[in-house]
Structures are given as structure tokens and as C-alpha cells.
Recover the amino acids of this structure.
């Protein structure tokens, strides 16, 4: 944990605050303390889209490729950092509540039901969810609190 907190933040303070405001505007699910946590906590928790063990460059690339989900990833990372109970059930709940449900809310808020982009974005979000479920447990369980 010491290395993560000493690292350069993934996004600027302004960008993180803008993402949190966007999440609030979209009506996304977030832990209660997410909405008023300190900027330092946001910077410590958020590492872009991708696993913490991946290089900064690969996470920047993935974040660029899936930029429409960055607001969801911020909440997801925050919840994983500060609400980690190290259980499989907790992991499944965390991914369901803070990834898949928020992707659905994001798509409903941004795109009308008749827009194909709504469904392609939902599909891309579901693929990322499946990757989280398949490959993310080991990394999440090994996180220090």
C-alpha cells in the first residue's frame, strides 16, 4: 500500500472531481462515503481501467480504449480499495453493484433506447465485467487494506 499511495496519481485533481460530479449526475451507485471522500483518497484508489499490477502505460491505453467507462471505474476502484472484505461473495457483490449496475445506469442516462450505441456500450461493459469476474479475484484478494 505504501508504494501505491506514494505513486503519481493517475488523474489530476480536477479530472477526478469532474468524474465524481459526473457520477452523481448520472445517478450511479457508490459507497456512501465516496460522495464526500477526500481528494487524496480518490487519488489513492483510482488507477484507471485495468489491474493494479499492470504498468501505468497499459492502464492508460485501456482507459483510453474504454474511456466511456472511466466514471464507472472510479467508483469501482474506490469501493475495491476501501470496501474490500477479501471474500469471493464480497468480490462478486462489488463487481455487480459498482460495475455492471453502473454500466447499465450510464448507458440508460447517456443513450436513448433506440440508439445502437446504447447496446454496443452495454455489450462492451459486459465484456469488461466478465474479464473482472474471470481474472480480477486473485488481484483483489491480494490487496493490502
Amino acid at each position: 500500500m505504501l508504494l501505491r499511495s506514494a505513486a503519481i496519481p493517475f488523474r489530476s485533481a480536477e479530472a477526478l472531481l469532474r468524474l465524481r460530479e459526473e457520477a452523481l449526475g448520472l445517478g450511479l451507485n457508490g459507497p456512501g462515503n465516496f460522495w464526500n471522500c477526500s481528494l487524496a483518497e480518490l487519488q489513492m484508489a483510482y488507477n484507471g481501467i485495468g489491474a493494479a499490477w499492470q504498468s501505468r502505460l497499459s492502464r492508460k491505453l485501456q482507459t483510453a480504449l474504454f474511456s466511456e467507462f472511466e466514471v464507472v471505474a472510479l467508483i469501482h476502484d474506490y469501493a475495491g480499495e476501501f470496501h474490500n472484505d477479501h471474500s469471493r461473495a464480497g468480490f462478486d457483490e462489488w463487481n455487480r453493484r459498482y460495475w455492471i449496475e453502473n454500466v447499465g445506469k450510464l448507458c440508460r442516462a447517456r443513450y436513448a433506447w433506440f440508439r445502437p450505441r446504447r447496446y454496443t456500450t452495454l455489450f462492451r461493459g459486459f465484456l469488461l465485467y466478465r474479464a473482472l469476474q474471470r481474472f480480477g479475484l486473485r488481484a483483489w484478494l491480494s490487496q493490502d487494506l
Notes: Confidence is low (pLDDT under 50) at residues 1-6. The CA atoms of residues 27 and 105 lie 7 Å apart.
